[in-house]
Structures are given as structure tokens and as C-alpha cells.
């Protein structure tokens, strides 16, 4: 393993050109290894994620077969097995997120892409579990092995986080399909009641995801913007519940905190662009709402990006995952503006409640978060083949995984 390699930011790994390993394995494995090196070359943009998974799985399968044949493999071979399997899990992570984004862009909560995304994440997590077993990770106090253990634990947490994020994004998709269809100028009381029936549950999911995300800091997924995204949703969902129980002052306070988190992610001009409070023109309000909710449709139709294109690491300190950006632009920001308009109008005309600005008091109203019990796909190595088990109990050869 490499020095300072306990963070998932370094993934996927690149194989070295050292002659030590190439002289330790058969020629057919050297060829498979060279294919892996080519696939991970940043200049090879034509190699998509699915192809990368296929190439690296073949190499991992070859290494495992070689190890089983010789009985006692050298440490270099063991390290190659670890590297190959970790990279495949990383590619499953990437394709899981990309498929989740495509599912959200489809605007159809019943789209099969939601399930496909979850399948990829389960395979990646299952592969990490298989790696720990087959390489007996965590059984000694060797420094390199401890590094691998820390890295695999970090990856496992990230898979759990992405699965929880998938549930949240699906919930947003369902809400979007209803609100964008029904909302014209304002949310009606019955619509807010309908949203309120599930708002606490969604807030619990976001709190659970936030707690998981705190354990994933310093990796390839979580940064400050990611955490602000989840916090914004927590306050947003809880504000709906507070409004429905006639606590309009608390609802406004919650929403103000949500907006503060949003302002660290999206430019202030984006909120002002949709600021329907500045206009008393009903027609203009209606047009602004329609533009906000239909913005995604134009963006998705003009998008020419290749499906499953190999991409650079999808997290950085100064940018959000495109998946989160999409949900912000086409739904969360417009919904926030609608809610702000409804809350303030209700409070000014009916409730007359004092706005709660004490963040500590608002946070005391947080429920306990909910975390998923995410189980990975079962992988095994049988008869010189790396295989995984489908949900129906059947077993597939890794080369025909898709």
C-alpha cells in the first residue's frame, strides 16, 4: 500500500510500473495489468466506468486464481489483489452516483435507474467485505494492513452514506413531481399538509445521513458543501412540520437557517432571482415559479455528456456533486422560496408569532436521526471465478456482471 493512503481521496489507485511485480506474475497477468494501467490513464477518456469495472475485475480474478494455484503468494501479489478490488469497489461507487443522478434527471420516481443505482452500491460494498475476508484484513498489527483496514472502513461508510443519500434524493424526486405539477403561485394548505405527513421522516433521514457524513470527512465524497446541503434539508423539512402544527415563528426560524446553509452553496443572486416576495404581480410570480421548476428540463435536454463517462473524482473543496447541484437548482431553491412566501404571509396575516432566531433552541427540536442498515452483495471466489450473488439467490460470473 502507498504512504498516506488511508483517505479515499487517493482512489482509484494507479498501478506502478515497477518490474518487481511484473516479474512475479505470469505473462497473461502482466497483460491484464497493462490493460488496467491503460484504463486508469487520465488521458484515456474514452474508457467508461463499466469498461473499467470489467477490466479490473478480470485482473483481480486472474490474481486470485494465481494465488490459489501457487498456494502462498508473495506480498506484492497480495497488495495487487487489494489494489484491484478496492479500485473496482471505487468504480462501483462512481457508477452508483452517476446512475442516481440519471434517475433524478429522469423526473420519474418509478424509474428502474433508482434500483440500478442501489445495485451498484451494494456490489461495491459487498466487494469490500469480500476483500476483508479473502485477504484477512485486520488480523495482524502490520502497519500496511492497518492502513488497508482504515481505508476499507472509510469506503464502507461512504457506501452507506451514498445509499442514504439515494433515499433522500428519491424523496426529493417524489416531492418535486407533486409540487412542480400543482404549484402555480403558492402552496395551498392541503399541499403543505401532505408534505408535512412525511417531512419529519425525511428530516430524520437527513440527520442520519449527516451523522454518517461526519464520519466520512476527508474522503472523496464529503466536504463542507455536502454537509451544508444536508443541514439545509434538515431545517427545510422540519420547518414544514412546525408550520403544520401552527408554530409559524419556529417554521420561519427553521427556514431562515436552511437559507443560511443554502447561501454557502448557491449564489445569493440565485435566491434573489426567484424572490417572489419582491413582486406583487401575480402573473410575474407565476412565471418565476414555472421558470424555476422547468429549468431542469432545458438543462437535461441540452446536455450532451456521454452516459457512464469516466470522470474525475466527483467531490472537491470548491464544488458540489452535479447530482446535488441539480436537486438544488430545479427543486430545493424554488421550494424554499415558495415556503418562505407562504410562512411569512401566514404569520403576518393570521399567526402573529415571534420568529425564533435562537439556533440552539431550534436544534433542540431535532428528532433522532435514522440510518440505513445497508447490506452489500455477497461475493465469493469459487472454481477460479470471482462471483456475486443476485437478490434472487443466483450467482453470476464477474465477467458477465452487467
From TrEMBL:
<protein>
    <recommendedName>
        <fullName>YGR122W-like protein</fullName>
    </recommendedName>
</protein>
<dbReference type="Pfam" id="PF17306">
    <property type="entry name" value="DUF5355"/>
</dbReference>
<dbReference type="InterPro" id="IPR035278">
    <property type="entry name" value="DUF5355"/>
</dbReference>
